[in-house]
Specification:
The structure holds two protein chains of two kinds. Chain A is of the alpha+beta class. Chain A folds into three domains: about 280 residues, no CATH class; about 80 residues, no CATH class; about 60 residues, Arc Repressor Mutant, subunit A (Orthogonal Bundle), CATH 1.10.10. Chain A is about 40% helix and about 20% strand. In chain A, the strands form four sheets. In chain A, strands 5-6-9-1-10-11-12-13 form an eight-stranded mixed β-sheet. In chain A, helix 6 crosses helix 8 and helix 10 packs across helix 13. Chain B has a single domain, classed as Alpha-Beta Complex (Amidase signature (AS) enzymes). In chain B, strands 1-3-2-4-6-5-10-11-9-7-8 form an eleven-stranded mixed β-sheet, sandwiched between helices. Chain B is globular and about 55 Å long. Classes of the chains: A alpha+beta, B alpha/beta.
Chain lengths: ~425, ~450
């Protein structure tokens, strides 16, 4: 039988706001001394109360808009009650039935919802001991849930790359998967080709920290499910973990039925209401998004899809390219080639500097061989002592002579070709 | 005259005019604490540094006066137990907003008062550290959950006190101890640093010897708090400002006197007498008929409160604070189980969601009533203080005692209980409950003050 994978993604992104979601502690927790960025609120001491971070809410709405979502004019936080040692309140403040953004689309994948919640602390296991670091407790966390529209590992990877790009374009997170600021969880199942109903089970895979591993995990799972289905068995609904070393997934937790999180509206935070003026104000702040920018680059700068795709890969690179274009000394096509082929480090080289060196390098090519020969002969004639020294074996004077030539060429010319031509004459 | 018997107002006057000194004041208060605390079990922790702290506060509005604080308010460096064994050694590294405001205004925490554990109760008998006894008659309960604070005021073991109310926990013990208890509008006073009971209803407030004392204390603690998102940006008036405004021209609705459970009781009679007093003072008074039956509020409150409790107590899992779930008392366990049930899948719609809907009906009902009346009055409690041991085998004790306060509490309205009657045989008191619309504490305080001046107990 032929089968069709049915895959949805859940992606968590830590927001790079200055402070945490519900208190004033810094949200940047990476490599900080454990439990140094905590307070009565994120430690859930008696009477600690959450006060929502406005910026985090605006950024989540911004992400929702960038993903083509509707922004309902009412939203609220809810308590998700469950026990986990790194969850100091015994519940997580999240959003249940009225998330900040719903019904979007990115590429060919529909977005089900985008909501805002708080991260948990971190368990550190060592020497038969488990310690808790609460620095991460309460860091703003956005969850993006797709519809089960993905049909392959490759499609998942493509989608995630696009999402990563959008998040980075918005500047709301470093989305660094190594640091855990972006976490990827595919929900995978398989159905007979042609079936329109959702399979009765799904397998969630956790612990994945790269797009490639998502692809591999999906491919591994799809094969595993098909093998089971072929044997007349149904895969078990469960959570599995990706084992990077072995390129396989292993069972972590069997979900017999959905957890009962006993959601109820968070009484410590009043519900949120806004009007379309507020939402439009956030919309107006949206930068040009990767896809639109890519299309425009192809059209406006006559770039091919490949070059344009590379240049719009990050907002910084695309901005850099356009800064260079604005200087008008070099054609966009030439700039694109130069930036891509020479792998220009955009953090070190200013646009003006880059453009200048491209102009200079291009000028080299325009020096005719005769012009170069004339200058070299003139320099030989003007510096008999240096030439004599060189002939006696003092090769280091060649540098001096090349310098004299370049001076006369007013900086034009490529030292390598000058050196070669020189050697022909002495 | 013993200085500990002074009202807050008189203490401040005398301190200001240097008629008394802080040393004299604290000498008398300390003496009262030494005399009564062992017997009445009012304070769980006494601040031995109080007079020293007071001397640093003398130039501020509250001039260093000793204030008793319910033990569910976090006090920096001072043990805060919420009267539960789970927190029996907890020393907070921070002050609740009410405490920091009290200190800024010049108040001094003289001690932390007993309460029902986690504020789960209306007797102060369910404290993990033993019951507090009613100073008016030690065979009786002080009420609760702010029973320690009400008793501290009644026994002159402080000048005024801070309590917290979820549904009756300030007004009911004030009523039983024969003192004044003021519960402000929900969101008027910050909950930050108050061990959460039912977050959507918890309201810190004041307990004092007089209405004016409560107003002075409320002045110190009210207002928007950046640490509590549910506090309101409503401007904070001077609550003592309209004190002598009286009730002339006000329309006052009389509630519950004809309720089958109250008809013919002292509680009902005292309200009828109070209504006459208000009439004499120039108010228009009439019985309210369209008020929703308060007994329905018991169910609503029980479900909403237990649901929130089950979540609010989830963090006390033994990983921190040294003492884990085994240290929860029976009442807390009952509430956690009931609340977990009412929020569970398949039951939440039937219980939690329905309760919230009925809660909205109460709110609508009150808005209709306040379209017609400026104030509503009724009994604070259905009767006098009950005897020690009354809560045994009676888990719904509090809900029945607070039945008359629960409708306005779940609606977030402000209320004040003023002593209205004293039984000379038992020396026990009844309180008159005055409820106002949201943010209308000033006119509520004015009416309470006018009534207080007329009642001689």
């Amino acid at each position: 039988m032929n089968y069709e994978p049915v895959i949805g993604m859940e992606i968590h992104v830590e927001l790079a706001t200055r402070s945490k979601m519900f208190c004033g502690c810094p949200s940047n927790h990476f490599a900080k001394v454990p439990n140094t960025q905590t307070c009565p609120v994120c430690l859930a001491m008696p009477g600690g109360l959450p006060v929502p971070n406005k910026k985090a809410i605006e950024w989540t709405i911004k992400l929702g808009l960038a993903l083509g979502c509707e922004i309902p004019l009412f939203s609220k936080f809810d308590r998700k009650n469950y026990f986990y040692p790194d969850l100091p309140k015994g519940y997580q403040i999240s959003q249940y039935d009225q998330p900040l953004a719903i019904h979007g689309k990115l590429g060919d994948v529909r977005i089900h919802r985008v909501h805002l919640e708080e991260d948990t602390g971190k368990l550190v296991h060592s020497n038969n001991m488990t310690l808790i670091d609460f620095n991460r407790s309460g860091v703003p966390l956005v969850e993006i849930v797709t519809e089960p529209d993905i049909r392959s590992g490759d499609q998942a990877k493509e989608f995630l790359k696009k999402l990563y790009q959008v998040v980075r374009y918005l500047g709301i997170s470093d989305a660094d998967m190594e640091k855990g600021s972006m976490r990827l969880e595919p929900n995978i199942s398989v159905r007979p080709m042609g079936s329109k109903t959702l399979p009765k089970y799904k397998v969630e895979v956790k612990n994945i920290n790269s797009f490639n591993f998502v692809k591999k995990a999906i491919e591994y799972e799809v094969k595993r499910h098909i093998d089971l289905l072929e044997q007349g068995r149904t895969p078990v609904q469960e959570t599995r973990g990706w084992m990077e070393g072995n390129n396989e997934t292993v069972s972590q937790r069997i979900k017999e039925e959905a957890n009962d999180y006993r959601y109820f509206p968070e009484p410590d935070i009043p519900p949120m209401r806004w009007d379309s003026v507020f939402v439009n104000g956030i919309k107006a702040q949206l930068p040009e998004l990767p896809e639109a920018r890519n299309t425009r680059f192809m059209k406006e700068y006559a770039l091919n899809a490949y070059d344009s795709g590379l240049l719009t890969d990050s907002r910084e690179l695309a901005d850099y390219f356009e800064e260079c274009v604005k200087l008008k000394s070099v054609s966009p096509k030439k700039l694109a080639n130069w930036i891509i082929n020479k792998k220009v480090n955009i953090d070190d080289v200013l646009p003006a500097t880059l453009v200048k060196s491209i102009v200079q390098a291009s000028a080299v090519a325009t020096i005719s061989d005769t012009e170069l020969e004339n200058v070299i002969q003139r320099v030989i004639g003007e510096n008999p002592k240096a030439v004599a020294d060189y002939k006696k074996g003092k090769t280091q004077v060649l540098g001096f002579l090349i310098g004299m030539v370049m001076k006369q060429l007013k900086g034009k010319g490529n030292p390598e070709s000058i050196k070669k031509t020189f050697q022909l004459y002495i | 005259m013993k200085l500990n018997t002074l009202t807050l107002k008189d203490t401040l006057n005398k301190l200001q005019h240097k008629e008394i000194s802080l040393s004299e004041l604290y000498r008398d208060v300390d003496e009262a604490i030494a005399d009564h605390n062992e017997k009445l079990n009012v304070y769980l922790t006494v601040n031995n540094e109080a007079v020293k702290e007071a001397r640093k506060q003398q130039n501020k509005p509250l001039a260093g006066v000793p204030v008793a604080v319910k033990d569910n308010f976090c006090t920096k460096g001072m043990r805060t137990t919420a009267a539960t064994n789970v927190l029996k050694d907890f020393i907070p590294p921070f002050d609740a907003t009410v405490i920091s405001r009290l200190k800024e205004a010049g108040g001094v925490v003289v001690g932390k008062t007993n309460m029902d554990a986690w504020a789960h109760g209306s007797s102060t008998e369910t404290s993990d550290f033993g019951p507090t006894k009613n100073p008016r008659n030690p065979d009786y309960l002080p009420g609760g959950s702010s029973g320690g604070s009400a008793a501290a005021v009644a026994a002159d073991m402080c000048i005024a006190a801070i309590g917290s109310e979820t549904a009756g926990s300030i007004r009911q013990p004030a009523s039983w101890c024969g003192v004044v208890g003021l519960k402000p509008t929900y969101g008027r006073v910050s909950r930050y640093g108050v061990a959460a009971m039912a977050s959507s209803t918890d309201s810190p407030g004041a307990i004092g010897k007089t209405v004016e004392d409560c107003a002075i204390l409320l002045n110190a603690i009210a207002g928007k708090d950046p640490y509590d998102a549910t506090t309101s940006p409503q401007p904070v008036p001077d609550f003592t400002n309209g004190l002598k405004k009286g009730v002339k021209g006000l329309k006052i609705g009389v509630c519950y006197t004809e309720h089958p459970k109250l008809k013919g009781t002292d509680a009902s009679r005292a309200v009828v007498a109070a209504a006459k007093t208000f009439e004499r003072l120039g108010a228009t008074v009439e019985p309210v008929s369209e008020i929703m039956d308060p007994s329905i509020a018991i169910g609503v409150y029980t479900i909403v409160q237990r649901s929130e409790v089950s979540s609010n107590l989830a963090g006390y899992n033994g990983i921190r604070y040294d003492y884990g779930r085994a240290f929860f008392g029976d009442e807390a366990k009952r509430r956690i189980m009931l609340g977990t049930f009412t929020l569970s899948k398949g039951y939440a719609d039937k219980y939690y969601v329905t309760a919230q809907k009925v809660r909205s009906l109460y709110i609508e009902n009150y808005q209709k009533l306040f379209g017609r009346y400026d104030l509503l009055i009724g009994p604070t409690s259905p009767g006098y203080a009950q005897k020690l041991g009354a809560t045994k085998d009676n888990p719904m004790f509090g809900e029945l005692e607070d039945m008359l306060l629960e409708p306005s509490s779940i609606s977030g309205l402000p209320g004040i209980s003023v002593p209205s009657h004293r039984d000379p045989k038992t020396n026990l008191y009844l309180g008159l409950n005055i409820v106002a619309n949201y943010w209308q504490e000033v006119s509520m305080i004015a009416a309470a003050y006018a009534f207080e001046q007329e009642v001689k107990l």
